[in-house]
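Session log. Operator J.P. requested a structure for one protein chain; no other inputs attached. Running the standard single-chain path with token output.
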Amino acid sequence: MSGTVRWGVLATGGIAAAFTEDLRSMPDMEVVAVASRTEASARAFAERFGIPRAYGNWAALAADDEVDVVYVATPHSAHREAAALCLEAGKHVLCEKAFTLNAREADELVKLARDRGLFLMEAMWTYCNPVIRRMTELVRDGAIGEIRTVQADFGLAGPFGPGHRLRDRALGGGALLDLGVYPVSFAQLLLGEPDRVQADAVLSPEGVDLHTAMLLGWSEAGASALLNCSIVADTPQTAAVTGSKGRIEFPRGFFYPERFVLHRPGHEPEEFTAGTAGTAGTGGGALHGLQFEQAEVARALRAGETESPLVPLDGSLAVMRTLDAVRDRIGVHYPADGLTRG
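Structure written below.
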């Protein structure tokens, strides 16, 4: 692929709006179509952002010959359906996180994309952030020695009433898939898939997790991760990676950071910022921070790649397996867990 990358946006909620706003600042990219379940919603979104075409159903977007790649921004419960529809129509796909409701659905999407030779990526924007990429380089180069512990949390105070999507089991509600995916993905970026998973949670009357604490373990690496997520508490939203020779600390907003601090015995603390990572800004600037994943998708498409090395599909599958294991431990089950595709 060469020239302008033409995007279709599937869904019209807040994250779709943020994505479209960021993409408008990117060179050689444009949103050419948007789809919603209702034509009125699609038209309103198109008028807001100056998008040429608006569709009142997903299939019309998937069939649009002028769309190269579709950004799926629905709730998790519809990720498999929407992404599969686009892949089956021959479209490349960037799908919001959590990738799907469960590992089975994620595996179905990955197999479909690989069978069709199409690009598919989970929209784990954190992995594409240049500050996070700099951190992983330092860890890989031994700056803090062998990783011993990872700590990360992401909690919001709400309140989210009983009618909110985060309290709806059918929509994949709860803290884990919406917020817990960030701490889990952060830990697995550094250590891979854990071989031990422990968890405890407080559940809502609807049967979704209001707060979940996780303890993950890696026997071979001798490492562990203590992770938390919540939709009833405004947690610090920080992260830390401690190794045998030092530690790295992220301030609030670790999942879209502008800086981190490296601490090593015998050295003054070293601060690494967005500027030192080779970019002028991330989530704290005028943009939302989604431009980095957009740039990675465009780079991969132009290079003819069907997977991103920054957000590999096997890594997304591993995260979904961990989230499934956590839900099994805390007793959260979604109606779709027992369904099979078709």
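Operator note: The mean pLDDT is 94.
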